[in-house]
Amino acid sequence: MAAYLELYRSGKLRGRIEAAKSLLRSCHVCPRHCGVNRLEGEVGNCRTADEAIVSSYGPHFGEETPLVGRYGSGTIFFTNCNLRCLFCQNYSISQLGQGEKVSKEELAYMMLSLQARGCHNINLVSPTHVVPQILEALEVAVKLGLHLPLVYNSGGYDSLEALSILDGIIDIYMPDMKYSDERIARELSGIENYPLVNRAAVKEMHRQVGDLRLNEEGIAQRGLLVRHLVLPNNLAGTEEVVNFISKDISLNTYVNIMAQYRPCYKAHDIPSLARPISAAEFQQAVDLAHQGGLYRLDRARPLVMRL
Q1: Is 304 within a domain?
Q2: Would you say residue 228 lies in a domain?
Q3: CA-to-CA distance for 143 and 15, rounded, in angstroms?
Q4: Residues whose CB is less than 8 angstroms from the CB of residue 249 and which lie 6 or more positions away in sequence, other chains included
Q5: Which CATH number does the domain housing residue 97 bear?
Q6: pTM here?
């Protein structure tokens, strides 16, 4: 049973919605704390006001193995982002604003449509800046029969205040752990204190849902799944990231060491990012995870890699 159903039945979901909406008044939905009044149409770094913007939605078969199953992960791609990653592969969505505004009813319909198509979960991609809007739509969708697990698929720059509101609502947290170096995070994603904020967020996510649990068919039901994208020239700081996961989170953490980096968006203009990763760099990252004691690594592998 999805976690949010209990909150809805007890009447407590409404209180969470109001708490989330209050964050929009002087916006501190995410750690940037822009302070604008999004309820009055103002926008901050995420360039999103009072309505969520969606680029696309549908079954996705390229996600992590436990999310996909036979019928796919039901992804909803939210437009805009609270990060400014210079190498984003979805930059037309995250940085250029490709998408359409949706009402809470329209967003609820998307969730229910994905459920009707047999998807195993509702996968909220880049949800950090639209937590209040998601919760409003969730209430509508639950009234109409939504019961699938919710996946919170974020860049990992999430505030503890927003995460506390989501406690008992999100079933599967899937944050990125992008960097272990604050300076590199500032240069490549335009954010302050990423490692500190990110690690605190991942700890809270794990406290809420624990290690990833699968059903008898190998489909994720609840828990934490961490993504780490290997960057060229060790810009992601993989060793520090996997050591943090193994020592401060859990040796049972399900981790996707991702090898699909390729130069996109503005990466071609940055010498250290202007090439794909090599097979040796990827293998080194996997070896570091194993050396740290992590053994639940996703099976997904890239189709093409440099030697």
Answers
A1: no
A2: yes
A3: 16
A4: 202, 203, 206, 224, 226
A5: 3.20.20.70
A6: 0.96
Residue 53 β-bridge partners: 101
Helices 131-143 and 13-22, packing angle to 10 deg: 160
Q: Where do runs of H (alpha helix) occur along the chain?
A: 4-10, 13-22, 65-68, 91-94, 104-116, 131-143, 160-166, 182-189, 194-209, 238-244, 279-291
- Integer Cα distance of 41 and 148 in angstroms: 32
Residue 196, domain extent = 4-297
Q: For the chain, how many structural domains are there in total?
A: 1
Q: How far apart are CA 82 and CA 90, in angstroms?
A: 14
Q: Determine the Cα–Cα distance for residues 124 and 150; give it in Å rounded to an integer.
A: 7
Position 306 in a domain: no
Question: pLDDT, tens digit, for every residue of 144-193?
Answer: 999 999 999 999 999 999 999 999 999 999 999 999 999 999 999 999 99
- Write out pLDDT tens, residues 253-287: 999 999 999 999 999 999 999 999 999 999 999 99
User: Is the pLDDT assigned to residue 39 strictly greater than 50?
Assistant: yes
